[in-house]
Design goal:
The protein is of the alpha/beta class. It has a single domain, classed as 2-enoyl-CoA Hydratase, Chain A, domain 1. The protein contains twelve helices and nine strands.
Length: 242
């Protein structure tokens, strides 16, 4: 699931559990959403920042496809997509800077979750960003996934490598793409770097609600797509290929 702690003005949301893949199934997504609601409710009186990180080898290995295939695949895929869309909507509207401290692999929906933060820090020694759908034979559904990629990866060549080559992008390569800030060292160093960045941003004393409104204006196309429900036919297409 996940834990939430507050260090001064910085919230740290950590994905936890005995299975360190942190597959995005409904219980985990509900836990993240609940944590974000708490962050929102406790952040109204002062400048704050959010860091999201994870224990273990993975930041997140994407949707829990094994759970989806266990029963009624179509509805379960729709449910996971809807819940992740709600989490990303919360992140995009959160009244504070957000930072993903990616301490392991971030694949597929896990990559989308990481990219939905304002800043992405990655450890240099291990881990990658990876949109795996081409390699496992799944179309990129829903459309808001693509809008996240369009919004957060500026170079057409970089988007091509991520989407049409299914490239496993290391921290150093992602930094060259302008997508992440690469951090020397391992997981602890990456989280410490995220805390330093969060402290710098909090120190500016910005009005969080103004920050959130500017972010939503900056990513207005993404905000618009997030408001559109996925089509059942999209989930049918994925289900037929699992």
């Amino acid at each position: 699931m996940c834990t939430l702690e507050k260090r001064g003005s910085i919230f740290i949301l950590t994905l936890t559990g005995t299975n360190d893949e942190h597959r995005l199934n409904p219980p985990l997504l509900d836990s993240i959403k609940s944590a974000l609601a708490r962050v929102r409710s406790e952040s109204s009186s002062s400048s704050t920042a959010l860091i999201t990180t994870a224990h273990g080898k993975f930041f997140s290995n994407g949707y829990d496809l094994a759970w989806a295939k266990a029963a009624d695949t179509n509805n379960r895929l729709m449910l996971m997509s809807s819940k992740l869309r709600s989490v990303v909507t919360d992140l995009i509207s959160l009244p504070m800077p957000t930072i993903a401290a990616v301490t392991g692999h971030a694949s597929a929906a896990g990559c989308i979750l990481a990219l939905s933060h304002d800043y992405v820090l990655m450890r240099k020694d291990r881990g990658f960003l990876y949109m795996s759908e081409l390699d496992i034979g799944l179309p990129i559904i829903p459309a808001w996934f693509l809008e996240v990629i369009q919004s957060k990866i500026g170079s057409p060549a970089a988007r091509r490598d991520v989407m049409l080559r299914a490239k496993k992008v290391t921290a150093e390569k992602a930094a060259e793409m302008g997508v992440v800030e690469a951090v020397d060292g391992g997981a602890e160093e990456t989280v410490r770097a995220a805390v330093r960045l969060g402290g710098d941003l909090v120190g500016r004393g910005w009005d969080g609600h103004v920050y959130g409104q500017i972010r939503m204006a900056l990513f207005s196309d993404l905000v618009s797509v997030l408001r559109v429900d996925e089509k059942t036919s999209d989930a049918d297409t994925i289900a037929s290929r699992l």
